[in-house]
Amino acid sequence: MENKTSLKIRNLVKYFHEPETFQVLKGVSFEVKKGEFLSIVGKSGSGKSTLLYVLSTMDTDYEGTLQINGDLLTGKTQNQLAAFRNEHIGFVFQFHYLLPEFSCLQNVMLPALKLGKYSTKEIEHKAYESLRLLDIEGQALKSANKLSGGQQQRVAIARALINNPSIIMTDEPTGNLDSKNTEAVLDIFRGLAKENGQTIICVTHDKDFANNTDRTIEMADGLII
Ligand SMILES: Nc1ncnc2c1ncn2[C@@H]1O[C@H](COP(=O)(O)OP(=O)(O)OP(=O)(O)O)[C@@H](O)[C@H]1O
């Protein structure tokens, strides 16, 4: 593992104001190294998803600072953040689920089409590479809603990889998977971290999964313990 910092947060504080003011993050600081596979665990309601949402740059309503690959992202405009995310972050989030009527190939191609850097032909080629890496290229032309949960999860990971992001963020990546598929996802993430130097940040309830990552951060009541 290289000793470069991939992500750094300092004194992250966040409040929700509905139905009443409530401090959900109470001063969270940590760093993640490039190529590190990090899990974030903690009881329900401890603030894990809220934290991940801030790290993903999608939530900008916080105090403190967020840096990714040395870039200070705190204070950037929504347009700047959207461009940054497309290029640097791959997401496997439940609310980013696959478009059911689209083929797996089309689903995987979408983030690269949005980035607008490559021709459709090149993107299709990259999408096939990504699907192959996840051992799911045989399903490329099927609609996403015709796949099993485990297969859909692989396609979602393939989609997160298409722009070759330096960081992959996921919320409950194995939430609906059986132990065989969980093991497969774990292997994929480990490989991406070790072989490609991609940083992986996972929020998970699965203790076994967390025990197989490089490092685990535990949250309780808006703080790291
Ligand atoms: N939009 C919101 N408005 C107000 N309160 C919220 C909002 N989103 C989350 N919360 C509250 O913030 C706290 C932390 O929520 P969060 O979803 O980050 O927890 P979590 O650790 O990810 O939980 P889980 O493991 O159940 O997903 C909870 O008490 C939750 O009810």
- Shape label: globular
Look up the CATH topology.
Answer: Rossmann fold
Structural class: alpha/beta
Largest sheet descriptor: 6 strands, mixed
Q: Count the strands?
A: 10
As laid out across the biggest beta sheet, the strand order is: 6-7-8-3-9-10
| Average pLDDT figure | 92
What sequence of helices (H) and strands (E) makes up the elements? Answer: EEEHEEHEHHHEHEHEE
Low-confidence stretches: none
Question: What's the gyration radius in Å?
Answer: 17 Å
CATH domain class name: Alpha Beta
Instruction: Give the CATH architecture.
Output: 3-Layer(aba) Sandwich
The end-to-end span amounts to 25 Å
By DSSP (H or I, 4+ residues per run), the number of helices equals: 7
Could you estimate the helical fraction of the residues in percent? 25-40%
- Please report which band the strand proportion falls in: under 5%, 5-15%, 15-25%, 25-35%, 35-45% or over 45%: 25-35%
